[in-house]
Amino acid sequence: MQYRPLGTTGLEVSALSFGTWAIGGSWGSVEDEQAREGIARAIELGVNFFDTADVYGNGRSEQLLGDMTHHMADRIAIATKFGRSGDWQDPANYQEPAIRAFCEASLRRLQRDTIDLYQIHCPPTWVIERGDVFAILDQLQQEGKIRAYGVSVETVDEGLLALQYPGVKALQVIFNLFRQKPLDQLFPQAQAQNVGILARVPLASGLLTGKFRVDHQFAADDHRAFNKNGEYFNVGETFAGIPFETGVALAHQLQWIAQGRETMARAALRWVIDSPGVTCAIPGFKSAKQVEDNLAALAVPSFTEEERAQLQQFYQEAVAPTIRGRY
Asked: Domain residue spans in the chain?
């Protein structure tokens, strides 16, 4: 396992870490025991960082992580998020009483005294522009409730806004072979300020595994069914904002990346963690087997400069025009 500094937080995190949206909910069913086995296997293989949120399964993923890691606070770091409970556009969600309540609830579920990285969960742009929320997070940090804070953003412009606040030590962004825009301006600026980058949706909701056919049917409780067109939240969170059928066809054109790298998924993850500015990728998992498969990306060859240039051209010409929503 390779470990990297997460900006100036003092945390050294595994280059391939894990997100826990899938074990919380909205990715189809997963049993608690299956989720626990996945967490345990990740830790066994050297993963020391997990990303979660209070709304993943209404606290379920936080509770699972708390059950598995509360006695490992000195060596397993947890990032969680707040702001999406209730009405995420309500200004009250970003004021001190609500944020304190969110924080205390997450601490209870995680069974910890301190949250290693506390992130605002894809807030409305005006929340970042106003900036009042950061003074509240500064106070929680001074009290020892949180070690560091960051922002999970939907767009490059929101990320650049967040970088204007010196207390922001990490950004979480959608970044994968189908979403390369952060490479142009956001990542260089974050690097210049020594701000960590967590790359979420690194497999474009599974499109970059190359396993789907256009007739694939997702379970009704899987966001890839109920949010495929952005019906419930930002469309970019599902298939990176690309229409599913289009994404399947685009992924088919990328099958060559698996040559010498075993699978498309491992190749796609390798590309993400090798990208300048990325601290770690945070793919999801629903089983120990998926954890093992994802971590195998660390052992496959990196892309050459010529291959990366080819992939950038493919993104600009074939992929970018198909992405829906702000990004």
From this structure: 3-204+264-299
